[in-house]
Amino acid sequence: MLTFVLSVAIAYAFFVAFMYFGQRSMLFPGATAGVDPVPERPPWGEHVKLLTGDGETLHALYASADKGRSAAIFFHGNGDTILNLGFMAAAFAQRDIGLLAVSYRGYGGSSGTPSEPGLIADGLAAWDWLAQRHHGPVMVVGQSLGSAVAVAVAAERASAGLVLISAPDSVLALARAHYPYLPIGPLIRDPFRSDMRIVDVGEPKLFLHGDRDTVVPLRHGRALYELAPEPKELKVLPGIGHNDLWSHETLEAVADFIEMTAAGTAG
């Protein structure tokens, strides 16, 4: 019996060590998927490069809007790429809403390796770059893990509005829910505590979440929504999961929010 217990303990210790050292490859799969850099003739927008405060070079795509109109910065999920956002750029262009999408460090040809402080630095660099070039309201939009970047940016920069799509209250809480048998607290390196940062975001906020999301269950989105100060709105998308929410109605809801928020800011 003692031998069995020791064997189980050793196996568990090895598993915990494996999860600790491999957690960033699981949290940032898009950085290890061999995604090509943005081509010189991109599928949408203009190919630009941004410099972060800590010296990394990021690839980005930018579709500009007319002076005085709104522009949004989009922070994508952990396994996505900015090359896939042509549908969003086209929908926004119909409303004359600009779009900037950034490949995080380690993603899509951008230099560096991803981490929570690194992605937040990337987000702040994107906001500063756009604010210097776009003379109109700047919105921040984030999806899934990108929502944690969006919250961190909105907590430090005076954006016109914030849209959070399939947003977890924190990666820490999400990891605890998915791995209840692991000591997540002392293990996790990138907790992305949106639940602590959202209280500093006073601008209007729109939350969108599918009620069949099994990756980031709706309860996590509701928890973040409840912590957020007013003004805020939560739209639950019936029958929608984590990766199938980009319908025409969803795009219209985001664009409507951006336009109405910008109009309120101007007023």
Walk me through the topology.
Layout: H1 2-27, E1 46-51, E2 57-63, E3 71-75, H2 86-94, E4 98-102, H3 116-133, E5 138-143, H4 145-156, E6 161-165, H5 171-178, H6 184-187, H7 194-197, E7 205-210, H8 218-227, E8 232-237, H9 248-266
Helix pairs in contact: 3-4
Q: Can you give keywords for this protein?
A:
single chain, 267 residues, alpha/beta, Rossmann fold, eight-stranded mixed β-sheet, 41% helix, 17% strand
Walkthrough of the structure:
The chain has a single domain (2-266), classed as Rossmann fold, CATH 3.40.50. 41% of the residues lie in helices and 17% in strands. The chain contains nine helices and eight strands. An eight-stranded mixed beta sheet has the order 1-2-4-3-5-6-7-8, with helices on both faces. It is globular, with a radius of gyration of 19 Å. The mean pLDDT is 92.
Major sheet: arrangement of strands: 1-2-4-3-5-6-7-8
Helix content: 40-55%
Oligomeric state of the chains in view? single chain
Number of helices: 9
Element pattern in H and E: HEEEHEHEHEHHHEHEH
CATH fold label? Rossmann fold
Structural class: alpha/beta
Unreliable residue stretches: none
Rounded mean pLDDT is 92
What is the percentage of strand-forming residues?
Answer: 15-25%
Summarize the structure in short.
This protein is α/β, with parallel strands linked by helices and 267 residues long. 41% of the residues lie in helices and 17% in strands.
